[in-house]
């Protein structure tokens, strides 16, 4: 069907739906607004009716119900001028996409919203007064933004992340998250921020985060961050929370008791450490050394070989940061499944037992699965924790000369040892839950948090590493791959390499 401009005629369709037009709203979350300037009112009417027939919601006026602004023969600046007078009608922080008519016509041809490509975006001048339109290029949720590994704004994100840590050390989780959100927006930008005006157009920036960025733009560093990193409490909390098995509460208690160093912990007579913390303290230096990709691959291969000896066909997947393309990490996250549902049950204890008998396990903490109880109709479980069979363990990895950066060891008395302690998370999932487990265990942590926030706020769905639950339809949505889950959520699929939010 041609979408060429038409002359107004007696037969041209009115802007609003007529009584006899049968329209089924298929995409309620999308609100289109067609800019009349240079498009003309008759073509606008025609396109409006066309879109409505195909199940799209088209708004007559520019309001907070608009998610996509469509313009034809206009530059970005011209469209912004048109919208300028109407900006106050929008709620702050909910910004629409500013798109070329080509996106609209492609949607009409496909009878559904098509993926927005860079060529669909109208170019916007950076120094306009209409912040709302520029802001629209950076969506509000971390799971809607592509965040590759390369971060062009490290100087700002490092500072914001330090302040986030400091806030969490003080028990201010809300403040901590605010800094994380701001840092995450900057991570997703394709270029380095150069002016404070650009910041005004980004979502998720509170006053404090803005102030920190401004300070760095002006002085090259943040005096506040410098101060924080010098604080005894910050340094001690950082040291203690880097011990495997030590959370914020324990670290704070130790700090309040006057403990300041690993030596203090090791020498304390009255301190009661859990087995996990003992192992964490014992292997502190190794566990705080980055794990390389080569080491992670080696560990995954070890696990795979042993698993196959018990259960041929076991599928082993390296998840976490390595799946997102990181070259090093703080641990190794491994998912274990089998194409035949149920065959995977009980496998982990055999794998761990075998590795242990070979002297390859320094610590392990095996938990059986609990999803049968947790998801039974009479379950009273309200826990957000996973219910998978899993082991958070420490492997004793032989250091071989052919593994790249293991050679870069410290000069401690231990440096002559030919092994390295490595943290490994092993998680067993039935194949029916595997796509959810894979999505949940690939991270980043903030990407996961944003996925759950988006699911809940925008879709009334509950997402965890086992399933997606539609609270309106009251049903669990089965998935065969990660793409299915993004589709259920109406989100563009993000490959793992773009989930570094
Ligand atoms: P790194 O090790 O390279 O430093 O970073 P990472 O791989 O991104 O972080 P991670 O702390 O190993 O976490 C990887 C993902 O696994 C992250 O999205 C959060 C998720 N994850 C845990 N623990 C748990 C858990 O108990 N349940 C669930 N569902 N996910 C978890 O780390
Ligand atoms: Ca990891
Ligand atoms: Ca982990």
Please outline what is shown here.
With about 500 residues, the protein is an alpha/beta fold. It folds into five domains: about 25-120, Rossmann fold (3-Layer(aba) Sandwich); about 145-230, DNA polymerase, domain 1, CATH 1.10.150; about 230-280, DNA polymerase, domain 1 (Orthogonal Bundle); about 290-375 and about 385-430, Beta Polymerase, domain 2; about 440-500, Beta Polymerase, domain 3.
How would you describe this structure to a colleague?
This protein is α/β, with parallel strands linked by helices. The protein has five domains: 27-120, Rossmann fold (3-Layer(aba) Sandwich), CATH 3.40.50.10190; 143-229, Orthogonal Bundle (DNA polymerase, domain 1); 231-282, 5' to 3' exonuclease, C-terminal subdomain (DNA polymerase, domain 1), CATH 1.10.150; 291-376 and 384-430, 2-Layer Sandwich (Beta Polymerase, domain 2), CATH 3.30.460.10; 441-498, Beta Polymerase, domain 3, CATH 3.30.210.10. Helices cover 40% and strands 14% of the residues. Strands 6, 8, 9, 10, 11 and 12 form a six-stranded mixed β-sheet that branches. Helix 5 (154-169) runs antiparallel to helix 6 (173-187), helix 5 (154-169) packs across helix 8 (207-219) and helix 15 (293-310) crosses helix 17. Residues 1-21, 125-136 and 404-408 have low confidence and may be disordered. The protein binds 8-OXO-2'-deoxyguanosine-5'-triphosphate and calcium ion (CA) (2 copies). One calcium ion (CA) binds next to loops.
């Amino acid at each position: 069907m041609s979408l060429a401009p038409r002359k107004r005629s007696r037969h041209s369709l009115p802007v609003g739906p007529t009584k006899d037009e049968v329209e089924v709203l298929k995409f309620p979350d999308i609100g289109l607004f067609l800019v009349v300037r240079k498009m003309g009112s008759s073509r606008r009417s025609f396109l409006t009716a066309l879109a409505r027939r195909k199940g799209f919601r088209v708004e007559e006026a520019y309001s907070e119900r608009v998610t996509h602004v469509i313009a034809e023969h206009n530059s970005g600046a011209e469209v912004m001028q048109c919208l300028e007078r109407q900006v106050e009608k929008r709620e702050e922080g909910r910004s629409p996409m500013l798109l070329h008519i080509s996106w609209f016509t492609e949607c009409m041809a496909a009878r559904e919203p098509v993926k927005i490509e860079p060529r669909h975006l109208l170019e916007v001048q950076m120094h306009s007064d209409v912040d709302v339109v520029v802001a629209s290029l950076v969506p509000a949720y971390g799971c809607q933004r592509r965040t590759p590994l390369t971060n062009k704004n490290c100087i700002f994100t490092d500072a914001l992340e330090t302040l986030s840590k400091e806030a969490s050390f003080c028990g201010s989780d809300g403040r901590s998250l605010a800094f994380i959100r701001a840092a995450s927006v900057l991570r997703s930008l394709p270029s380095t921020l150069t002016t404070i005006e650009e910041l005004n157009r980004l979502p998720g920036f509170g006053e404090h985060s803005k102030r920190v960025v401004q300070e760095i733009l002006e002085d090259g560093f943040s005096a506040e961050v410098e101060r924080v990193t010098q604080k005894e409490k910050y340094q001690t909390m950082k040291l203690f929370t880097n011990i495997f098995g030590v959370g914020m509460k324990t670290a704070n208690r130790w700090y309040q008791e006057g403990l300041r160093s690993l030596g203090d912990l090791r020498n304390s007579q009255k301190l009661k450490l859990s087995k996990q913390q003992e192992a964490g303290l014992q292997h502190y230096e190794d566990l705080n050394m980055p794990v390389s990709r080569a080491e992670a691959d080696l560990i995954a291969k070890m696990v795979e070989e042993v698993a196959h000896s018990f259960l041929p066909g076991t599928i082993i997947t390296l998840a976490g940061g390595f799946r997102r393309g990181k070259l090093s990490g703080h641990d190794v996250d491994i998912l274990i499944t089998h194409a035949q549902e149920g065959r995977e049950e009980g496998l982990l204890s055999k794998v761990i037992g075998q590795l242990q008998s070979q002297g390859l396990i320094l610590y392990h903490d095996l938990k059986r699965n609990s999803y049968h109880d947790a998801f039974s109709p009479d379950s009273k479980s309200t826990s957000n924790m996973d219910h998978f069979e899993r082991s958070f363990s420490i492997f004793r990895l032989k250091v071989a000369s052919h593994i790249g950066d293991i050679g870069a060891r410290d000069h401690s008395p231990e440096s002559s040892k030919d092994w390295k302690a490595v943290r490994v998370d092993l998680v067993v999932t039935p194949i029916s839950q595997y796509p959810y487990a894979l999505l949940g265990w690939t991270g980043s942590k903030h990407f996961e948090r944003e996925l759950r926030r988006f699911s809940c706020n925008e879709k009334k769905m509950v997402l965890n590493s086992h399933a997606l639950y539609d609270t309106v339809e009251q049903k669990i949505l089965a998935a065969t791959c990660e793409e299915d889950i993004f589709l259920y959520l109406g989100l563009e699929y993000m490959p793992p390499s773009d989930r570094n939010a």
